[in-house]
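User: I'm putting together notes for a lab meeting next week and I want to include a structural view of one of the chains we've been expressing. I don't have a solved structure, so I'd like a prediction I can at least talk through. The sequence is below, exactly as it appears in our construct file.
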Amino acid sequence: MVVEIIDVVRDGHTACAAFYGHPGVFSLVPRMAIERARDEGFAATMSPGISAEDCLFADLLVDPADSGLITYEATDYLINKRVVDPTTGLVLWQIGKLAVFEPGDRTSSSEAKRALVGKLAEHYPTGHRVVLYEAATLPGEPPAITELALNDLPAESTHAGHTLYIPPAEPARADPRFRSYRP
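Assistant: Thanks for the context. Below is the predicted structure for the 183-residue chain, given as structure tokens.
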């Protein structure tokens, strides 16, 4: 795809490529094409699109200004030491591709999801309500929203388009050093 885009530019034409969602999120081709075009001396820019995160905010009525928001790709969160704060929302992208490393594998296993639940249980009660979410991909189509207990996640069928949203499990704790700044 990168070569196709760049060949059009090399032939002296203006190229425009459209991608699902935001072209800079979970999409390597747009970044690679822009970098290659710039390396070859061509002007190249990326325009923002409506992302799955924007849809999540609207569909689930989540405002990151309320309690903050932390986001990770699900496998990255599972295999690396990542910061989690149960007083803020947590988004885990591509939950359906959790621990999928082979191109032929399509969905994450229940075993990988159990491992994820075990790791999340260090910060959240296993009965904490979470949302398995998938943004609509066509106009007029509804999003897929499934609310469930965290410990029920391994039994849920998931695919690459699914995102896991975990709302705050407890209120934020004020830092007494800055109490004078509170209204």
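A couple of points you could mention at the meeting. Residues 2-39 form one domain. Helices lie at 2-10, 28-39, 52-60, 64-67, 74-79, 110-120.

User: Perfect, that's what I needed.
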